[in-house]
Amino acid sequence: MNSETKMIQVGDDMPVLELPPISRTTLALFAGASGDHNPIHIDIDFARGAGMKDVFAQGMLSMAYLGRALTEWVPQRQILSYGVRFAAMTHLGDRVRCSGKVVETLEHAGRPCVRVQISAAKATGEITLAGEALVALN
Amino acid sequence: MIDKKFIGYEVPPTLWDVEKGRIRFFAEVIGTADPIYLDDAAAKAAGYRNVVAPPTFIFGAESDSGVLMKLLDTLKIDLREVLHGEQRFDYHAPVCAGDTLRFQTRVADIYDKKDGALEFVVNDTKVTNQLGEHVADLHSVIVVRHA
User: Fold this and answer.
1) Whole-prediction pTM value?
2) Which residues of B touch A63 (CB under 8 A)?
3) Residue pLDDT, tens place only, B70-88
C-alpha cells in the first residue's frame, strides 16, 4: 500500500465509495456506536419538537463514511488532517456518495504530502459535506 | 443571544476510556472491513498497540465524555436549535483500544449572522492520552438556529 500511495499525483481521484440508503436503524446504531446521542437524529418526537418533519442523519455519519473512503485509499497513519463543512442535511433514504480529488502536492513538517478535496453528495448530486484532507505520501 | 463573555471559556477537562468493543461497533456501523479496526492481532501486526480508532471516532468520544452537554448547558444553548457547521481533525498520534483520552475544550469564538438569527460557537479541543502524548486537535463550529 505504501508503494502505491507514493504514486499519488495531482489530478488523481480517490476511489468513490457509495453507501446504502440511510435507514433509521443506521442512525440509531451510529448514535450508540459514536457516543453522540443527540435525539434529533433518533427520536422523531424530539425532531418534530425542533421543527423538523422527521429525524435526519448525523453529519458525523457522512464524515465517518468519508473517513472510511480515505482509509480504504491510504493508510490511516498517513492522514494528517481531515476537515469538512456541513452544507446540507442528509435525510432518510438518501444514498451517500463519497469522492475526492488530489489538488496539490506540498511539504508539511518535512514530509511530502498531498491536499485532497473531498465531498459527500446525495444521488441527486447535492453536496452534503465538503472539505479537504492532508495526506502524507510516506 | 449567547453571552460573548464565554469566548475563552474552558470546559472542565474530561477523561474517556477507549474500549475495543466500541471501536469495533463504530467500524461495523460505518462498514469498514479493515481488520486494524476489528482485530488486535491485525492491529499489532500493523504497528498499533491495539485496535485503532477510525479517523472521526474521537468526536463522539468527546461528546460521550460530556463535553458538548456541559458546553450547551453553560452557554444556555437549546439542543433543539443546534446544527453542526464544521468539523476538523488534526492528527498527531494514533488512538487505540485501552487508551484513556483527556479532552480539553476551549470556546475560541462566538459570533452571529443575520441579526442574531444564526449564532456560531467555535470550539478547539486538545486531546491527549495516558502516555502524555498529544494525539489530536479538534476544531468544531456549532450553529445555533433561532426560529
Assistant:
1) 0.96
2) 56, 59, 87
3) 999 999 999 999 999 999 9
